[in-house]
Amino acid sequence: MEADAAARWEEAERLNAAGRYQHARPLYAGLGSERMYAPLAHLRLSVLDQRAGDLRGATAQGLAAMSAAYGDPELLELLCKTLLPLGETRAALACATALAGMPAPLQALAEVGKLMSDHMQPEAALTLLQRAVAMGLAGAPAVRYLLGLNLMYLGRLDEARSELERSLAGNPGFAPAHWALSKVGPAPARGARIDRLRRLLERTESGARDAPLLWYSLFHELDGDDRPGEAWPALQTAMQLRRGQVQHDESAQDALFAAAGNALEWASGAGAGAALDAGPQPVFVVGMPRTGTTLIEQRLCAATDLASAGELRDLAVQMRWCAQQPGPFHPDARLLAAVLPSHLQDLGQRYLEHTQWRAQGASSYADKWPENYLAIGHILAAMPAARVLCVVRDPMDTCFSNLKEWFASSYYYSYDMAETARQYARFRRLLDRVQALAHPRVASVGYEAFVERPRDSIAAIAGALSLPARQEGGAIATHTIATASAVQARDAISRGHMGAWRRYSQQLQPMLAELERCGVAASDA
């Protein structure tokens, strides 16, 4: 029987490699009862289902592979690579934990460590990456960078700086490490970092893939060193180079926001079912990126019985599962239109099943993926106990904070002043519709009002969202903050970021003019 199973596996692999997927499928399916081949066969079937656009089948096969898995490190690596893109984070974490506890190849530890980092799981990432370093990757710049990044997420900033510098010692041109260092915060070495970046940029071609990131890094270092006259040209160059690398379709954005607005009509419904009231319930903290969502969420978690779950991708993933719409973690117009009222109960149930574990004993947990504002209608209709907190900030400060940020594979509007202004106008029009609903499970807060009177703002939010006070007191949380605001959100609340755009007011006049053309007043927060 074992020889027969081996022959069937080899034949299935041959057919799969030749692109004859429909012939390979039944052979893989027939290996489900063979212990040696079952998990690998399920993984192959998961890939075939993903290729066919069947997310439900792909997810079921990925979980079946995990159920059939045995303690092989390379198999655990494959499981992580399959389960994470499908949104099965908890299952993937179990695989990563198992991998960390067994003798494993160095490459498997590094690969899964990077995956955990990419999916904002810094504790798991550090465990795996530190083992990889101990086993022989101590000199790998990319691994040192990942260590520094995840230490930054955990608030261990001195260690983070040390690891990032080690990364650059191994590869002086490694742009992500320069970028992360510029975000870690003030340091005596800032002047030396500026000089180092300038020397590097002198020998970097403008067409190089990482050139924009290096220019963004230089801007942040100069801006942090209070040298705006030198900083602006760096930002201008960074935006120009990055805009040339990406494609931003404004008509697609118009369609996306229209679909989001249409779904708000569902918000007046009674919800998908009382059964979804059981267990911890989510609070979705939404708003445009870099508008204080992390800072406000952290203070709200410190004062109330609300656990910080981080920036979760689960809502969009489960929307894609329900609608059978493969795609990225960010919503698009096609996805929003494909989710139907008949999907809502499954959407609510699956979201809760995949996220309630993050509450860690609290009665509620905060999902801080900013773009969930595009799915407020879906949220309110699918989960009768879910609540939403909308954060809004001064238009120019919002646009400038987006403009100066490196967002990698998202928010492509943010590399052009006029496009950023128009995106803000879309957001405000949608938010106006949300506020017009006067929905009892939706609250709003202005960043400026929060900064001026943080205790009063938090008390008002807690009251509006029925969040009970944290019994053990209001100590500021210092746990994982796996966002671009990992450093800033741990700082004391300060008015220093209010009106930050004004130091570049002359250069930002085109953005101000476009906001006004779109009907947004500069003080319309």
Quick rundown:
The chain has 525 residues and is mainly alpha-helical.
What would you note in describing this structure?
- The chain is mainly α and 525 residues long.
- The protein folds into 2 domains: 143-245, Alpha Horseshoe (Serine Threonine Protein Phosphatase 5, Tetratricopeptide repeat), CATH 1.25.40.10; 250-517, P-loop containing nucleotide triphosphate hydrolases (Rossmann fold), CATH 3.40.50.300.
- It is 57% helix and 5% strand.
- It has 25 helices and 5 strands.
- Helix 11 (175-184) packs parallel to helix 13 (211-224), helix 17 (314-323) packs antiparallel against helix 19 and helix 19 crosses helix 20.
Element order, helices and strands? HHHHHHHHHHHHHHHEHEHHHEHEHHEHHH
The CATH architecture term of the largest domain is: 3-Layer(aba) Sandwich
Mean pLDDT: 92
Radius of gyration: 24 Å
Q: Helices and strands: which structural class?
A: mainly alpha
Helix share bin: 55-70%
What percent strand? under 5%
Distance between the termini: 70 Å
Number of strands: 5
What keywords describe this structure?
single chain, 525 residues, mainly alpha, Serine Threonine Protein Phosphatase 5, Tetratricopeptide repeat, Rossmann fold, 2 domains, five-stranded parallel sheet, 25 helices, 5 strands
Write the layout of secondary structure elements.
Layout: H1 2-17, H2 21-29, H3 38-51, H4 55-67, H5 73-83, H6 89-100, H7 106-118, H8 122-137, H9 141-153, H10 157-170, H11 175-184, H12 190-202, H13 211-224, H14 228-243, H15 250-263, E1 281-286, H16 293-303, E2 306-308, H17 314-323, H18 333-338, H19 344-355, E3 364-367, H20 376-382, E4 387-392, H21 395-403, H22 417-437, E5 442-446, H23 447-452, H24 454-464, H25 509-517
Parallel strand pairs: 1-3, 1-4, 2-3, 4-5
Helix pairs in contact: 1-2, 2-3, 3-4, 3-5, 4-5, 5-6, 5-7, 6-7, 6-8, 7-8, 8-9, 9-10, 9-11, 10-11, 11-13, 12-13, 13-14, 15-22, 16-24, 17-19, 19-20, 21-22, 22-25
